[in-house]
Amino acid sequence: MSKLTLVVIFILVQFINFTTTYSETFDKIVAVVNDEVITQSEIDEALKPVYTQYKSTYSKEELIQKLNQAREDILNQLIEEKLILQQAKEEEIEVSDEEIEEKLTQVKSQFPDEDTFRQVLDSQNLTLSDLKQRYKEQIMIKKLINKEVRAKIKVSPLEVFRYYKQHQEEFRIPPKVRVQTILIRKDDKMSEDYSDPQKRIEEIKKKLQEGADFSKLAREYSQDSSAINGGDMGYIEKGEMMKEIDEVLFSLNEGQVSDIIETHVGFHIFKINDKKESTIKSFEEVRVEIENMLFQKKAEARYTEWLKTLKENAYISIK
Fold first, then answer.
1. Which pTM value belongs to this model?
2. Is pLDDT of 2 > 60?
3. CA distances from 263 to 17, 241, 247, 280 (A)
4. Taking Cα atoms as reference points, which of 266, 265, 273, 181 lies closest to residue 219?
5. 288/295 Cα distance (integer angstroms)
6. Do 22 and 41 form a contact (C-beta atoms < 8 A)?
7. CA–CA gap between residue 228 and residue 155 (Å, rounded)
8. CB 306 within 8 A of CB 7
9. First-to-last CA distance in the chain?
10. pLDDT value at position 21?
11. What domain range is 256 assigned to?
């Protein structure tokens, strides 16, 4: 996940677990960020969903190690969130009531009705006013990041073209073939002569050599799921099939039928109906993809540098 979006995503999770029920009098302060504090209960609330997930995956010392790392990550995220929000307030980033209501409407649309929405709020000890305030802060943070990071990133057409020329292998399309198949399984116990699947595949091969229609034989005899379509498997890219099959498929010419291939599954015969050689996507096909990728890389770098500056100019004390 990108660093640029991590803070915004993190606070989307935060509001779900936010609670106002703890006592500030006895709540341990774990960090100070300028004139604001981060408390132990904030860390614990944010850690709850992580703990639920981790305890089903890890145990004992590994669980403790993972939770300690998660706790450290959460603290860092809370520090960064407070820094960005403080900066947004200092720069007087404005959020209209309409923007908050729009966000609220989007969230409400995910619930079947108003009562269910209210019940979820109650279960999280969260008032509608609390929720709106969190949305306001989220929008402020997003606007500030857009202003200080995204709005200052430019990717020129020349940069995009140069990247394409220097990284063409990234856009290579592997060779592929359109294949029909007939499969007789080794473990088939439905047919009377299931004990000799090799005999049946050899009889099918003989019929093909005598000019029988591949599609017709596939529908009649094949035990592959493609039998209903006359054995047509569509296009297969190099490397998708088992090695012993893959090597044969890409050595055949269009229109050729393979010899019998034995695998642990059974006995196979393939026909190649079309071949497409490996090609590189055109510049126009990947131009937008490259532009977005370069933009994201630049934004990541600028976000990291901008956040570093915020931290250097702030008072941060971890208790």
1. 0.70
2. no
3. 53, 11, 13, 33
4. 181
5. 10
6. yes
7. 50
8. no
9. 29
10. 40
11. 176-276
Q: At 65, list the tokens.
A: 């190690």
| DSSP conformation class of 184 | E
SS3 for 305?
helix
Please name every residue paired with 267 in a beta bridge, in sequence order, or none if there are none.
184, 262
Q: What is the pLDDT of residues 65-74, one digit of tens each?
A: 999 999 999 9
**How many structural domains are present in the chain?**
2
Q: Which two tokens stand for residue 174?
A: 């592997």
Mean pLDDT to the nearest integer, 87-100: 95
Residue 9 has pLDDT above 80, yes or no: no
Residue 135 to residue 218: CA distance in whole angstroms? 60
What average pLDDT does range 135-139 have in this prediction? 95
Q: How far is CA 71 from CA 17, 64, 66, 76, 230, in A?
A: 15, 10, 9, 9, 57
Is 18 a residue whose pLDDT tops 90?
A: no
Tokens of 153: 């990133």
- Same domain flag for 293 and 221: no
Quick one: tokens of 280? 């590189």
Question: Which one has a higher pLDDT value, 251 or 190?
Answer: 251
Q: Are 87 and 184 part of one and the same domain?
A: no
Q: What is the pLDDT of residue 125?
A: 82
DSSP-derived letter for residue 226 is: G
CATH for 69: 1.10.4030.10
| Ranges assigned E (strand) in the chain | 29-33, 36-39, 172-173, 176-185, 232-237, 261-262, 266-276, 279-280, 316-318
pLDDT of residue 276: 95
Answer whether 104's CB lies under 8 Å from 135's CB.
yes
